């Protein structure tokens, strides 16, 4: 049974985004892109994700987007546009302005709904980045902003500055997250929850490992084999595909899977109506053991003694 697409608010905004986000980095031909985006749109999907660094795919997406305003169109900036130019990469104002203008030309639009900072740049002051982002929002070229692949402390500081100075704050966070890679549970996911950020989980199928697809990164390790086996077992019991189970686990965490489908068939494979019972979630996570480490585990261990019998459980 195909999934009836549902929608969530994007961070602390009124923007509605579908529970399945579509990454377009691998779309290299207009014919294929038209069919993939069409299958996604027919299923109710409305969030298309690209980046200035994706080059050709950004142009292809712009060529096939005939219903532009029906989509939440997102792109990213930060990665270098020219390795020989020291100012062609980074989170500073010059690169933001030039990257955004290039993306708007390629996408054949005069605005993007979401502009992500693609990667934390330790050399650019956070004040410069947040003020420059606010400027392009006020200019109408960007509606909302988000951040990808950055430390939790940076995101928290950036949004605190934005609140104090009446700038546009980050509404979304993009991170790699799947059953084989759970390290964002240490700091990034709790931070996103506390600040009300939507989490977009890239590589939710671990480059095909969790979907039963072709392995592009060599044979599976013993740990990976155990996790993949658990996903397959749950999928068989629920009458679903491994991809649908792996994506359902990501959604159950509160994150939105960002899938990089290469064909319309792969889009459809991601749309199964799967709700994981608590027992299935426990089995999957037991197969992919993860320790949050210090300070989360230490604080959880100390809370009963530290706060007494009046501990409030939320």
From TrEMBL:
SUPFAM superfamilies: NAD(P)-linked oxidoreductase. The keyword Oxidoreductase applies. CDD domains: AKR_AKR9A_9B (cd19080). Keywords: Oxidoreductase. Residues 20-287 form the NADP-dependent oxidoreductase domain. GO terms for cellular component: cytosol. InterPro entries: AKR (IPR020471), AKR_Detox_Biosynth (IPR050523), NAD(P)_OxRdtase_dom_sf (IPR036812), NADP_OxRdtase_dom (IPR023210). GO terms for molecular function: oxidoreductase activity. PANTHER family: NAD(P)-LINKED OXIDOREDUCTASE SUPERFAMILY PROTEIN, NADH-SPECIFIC METHYLGLYOXAL REDUCTASE-RELATED. This is Predicted oxidoreductase. It comes from Lentzea albidocapillata. The lineage of its organism: Bacteria, Bacillati, Actinomycetota, Actinomycetes, Pseudonocardiales.
């Amino acid at each position: 049974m195909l999934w009836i697409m549902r929608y969530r608010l994007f961070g602390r905004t009124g923007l509605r985004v579908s529970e399945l986000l579509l990454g377009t980095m691998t779309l290299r031909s207009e014919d294929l892109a038209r069919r993939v985006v069409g299958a996604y749109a027919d299923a109710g999907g409305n969030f298309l994700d690209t980046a200035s660094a994706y080059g050709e795919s950004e142009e292809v997406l712009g060529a096939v987007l005939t219903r532009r305003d029906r989509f939440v169109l997102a792109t990213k900036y930060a990665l270098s546009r020219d390795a020989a130019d020291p100012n062609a990469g980074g989170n500073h104002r010059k690169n933001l302005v030039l990257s955004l203008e290039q993306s708007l030309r390629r996408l054949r639009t005069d605005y993007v709904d979401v502009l992500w900072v693609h990667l934390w740049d330790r050399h650019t002051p956070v004040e410069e980045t947040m003020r420059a982002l606010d400027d392009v929002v006020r200019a109408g070229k960007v509606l909302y902003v988000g951040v990808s692949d950055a430390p939790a402390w940076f995101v928290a500081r950036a949004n605190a500055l934005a609140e104090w100075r009446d700038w546009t704050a980050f509404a979304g966070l993009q991170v790699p997250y799947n059953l084989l890679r759970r390290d964002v549970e240490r700091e990034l996911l709790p931070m996103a929850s506390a600040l009300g950020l939507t989490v977009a989980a890239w590589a939710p199928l671990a480059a095909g490992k969790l979907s039963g697809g072709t392995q592009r990164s060599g044979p599976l390790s013993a740990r990976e084999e155990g996790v993949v086996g658990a996903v397959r077992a749950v999928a068989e019991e629920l009458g679903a595909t491994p991809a649908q189970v792996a994506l359902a686990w990501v959604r159950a965490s509160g994150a939105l899977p960002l899938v990089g489908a290469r064909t319309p068939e792969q889009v459809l494979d991601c749309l199964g109506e799967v709700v994981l019972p608590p027992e299935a979630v426990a089995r999957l996570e037991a197969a992919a053991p993860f320790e949050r480490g210090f300070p989360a585990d230490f604080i959880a261990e100390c809370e009963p003694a530290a706060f007494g019998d009046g501990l409030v459980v939320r």
